[in-house]
UniProtKB/TrEMBL annotation:
It comes from the Eukaryota. Signal peptide: none annotated. Residues 3-234 form the NAD-dependent epimerase/dehydratase domain. It comes from Lactuca saligna (Willowleaf lettuce). One of its GO terms (cellular component) is cytoplasm. GO terms for molecular function: aldehyde dehydrogenase (NAD+) activity. PANTHER family: NAD(P)-BINDING DOMAIN-CONTAINING PROTEIN-RELATED (PTHR48079:SF6), PROTEIN YEEZ (PTHR48079). InterPro entries: Epimerase_deHydtase, NAD(P)-bd_dom_sf, NAD(P)-dependent_oxidoreduct. This is NAD-dependent epimerase/dehydratase domain-containing protein. Coiled coil: none annotated.
Amino acid sequence: MKVLVTGASGYLGGRLCHALLRHGHSVRAFVRRTSDLSSLPTLSDGVPLELAYGDVTDYPSLLAACSGCQVVFHAAALVEPWLPDPSKFVSVNVGGLKNVIRAYKETDVIEKIIYTSSFFALGSTDGYTADENQIHSAKFFCTEYEKSKAVADKIALEAANEGVPIVAVYPGVIYGPGKVTAGNVVARLIVERFNGRLPGYIGHGSDKFSFSHVDDVVEGHILALNKGKTGERYLLTGENASFMQVFDIAATITNTKTPFFNIPLFLINLYGWVSVVFCRITGKLPLISPPTVRVLSHEWAYSCEKAKRELGYKPRSLKEGLEEVLPWLKDLGDIKY
Ligand SMILES: NC(=O)c1ccc[n+]([C@@H]2O[C@H](COP(=O)([O-])OP(=O)(O)OC[C@H]3O[C@@H](n4cnc5c(N)ncnc54)[C@H](OP(=O)(O)O)[C@@H]3O)[C@@H](O)[C@H]2O)c1
C-alpha cells in the first residue's frame, strides 16, 4: 500500500516509516523544509520512500501529498508541555487533523486514516485505571497541548460518526530508542539524572503514568491499519508505573545508586517558572515548565486490554524497555555508568 506519514521526521514518525517499509509498504514522508530528517531511512535506489514537503496547517501542501495514498498516518503534532505562543497548539494539533479529514473528503483514494492521539486526550485518572470509554471531562487541562489533543480527539470521533474511516490510537508516555525530541521525555530525564542535573525523585514520584515503548506503539499503529475498526479508539499504552520506578529500575539495571531524596513539586515549579523566563530571553524551550508540574501532580494510568484483545497489541514491560534504553543512551555517549 502507498501510505502518507505526517510527522515523519519526529520521534515516533521516523520509526513508523522504518517499520512500514519493513512491512512492505511504500512510504511518502510528509516533512517540513526545516525538518531534521535524521530519523528517516536514507533515500536510496530501491527504497520505496519519498519525501513530500509541506506543513499540516498549509492545506494545499497536505492535499498534494495525499495524492495516490490509500492510507494516512497522521502523527504530526506540536508535542511540548509549554510554548510561548499557545495558539500554535490549536493551529497545528487541531487544524492539522481538520486538514487531513478535509483531504480525505476531497480525494477519492484515501481508504483509512490512522490518527495518533494521546493518553492526554482521555484526561487524568487520579486513583484508577481508565480505558477507551473515558471521555475527557474538558473541565481542566494541565497543558495547552492536552487541551489541543482533547479537542482533536472529539473532531476525530465526530468525523468517524460521519463515515470518515478514521481509527484513533492513544499512546502512553512514549519511550525507547530514537530521536531525542521533546516527545522522548524519559530519555531526556534519564540523561539529566545520570549527568547529575536531576539528583532526586521528581515530586513524591509515586504517581502513575503509562509507559509505552516506541516500537510497541509503532507496531500498534500498523495493527490498527490492518485490524482497527473505524471510529474505535485503541489505547496503545504500556505498564502503569511511576517515575520513581523508572529511576529505581534504571539504577538496578546500571548498578548505580537510586536517588535518596525527593525534590518537592513546588521547587520544580519554581525551576519551571525560571526556565520559562529564560526561554523568553534565549528562545530555548524548557524541559520543565509550570504546566509540566501540573501534569506531574496527576495520575495517568490506562488499560490497553482492548488493543491486546482486538488488535493483538503486545506491549513489553517497563523493565524490558529500559534494559534497551540505558545501553542505547550509553552507546550514544549521553550517559555513563
Ligand atoms: N512522545 C510521547 O510521549 C507521545 C505520547 C502520546 C502521543 N504522542 C503523539 O505522537 C505523535 C508523535 O509525537 P512525537 O513524540 O514523535 O513528537 P515529535 O518527535 O516532536 O514529532 C512531531 C512531528 O510533527 C511534525 N510537525 C510539527 N508541526 C508540524 C507542522 N505544522 N506541519 C507538519 N509537521 C509538523 C514535526 O516536524 P519537524 O521535525 O519539522 O518539527 C515532527 O515530525 C504526536 O501526535 C503526539 O501527540 C506522543
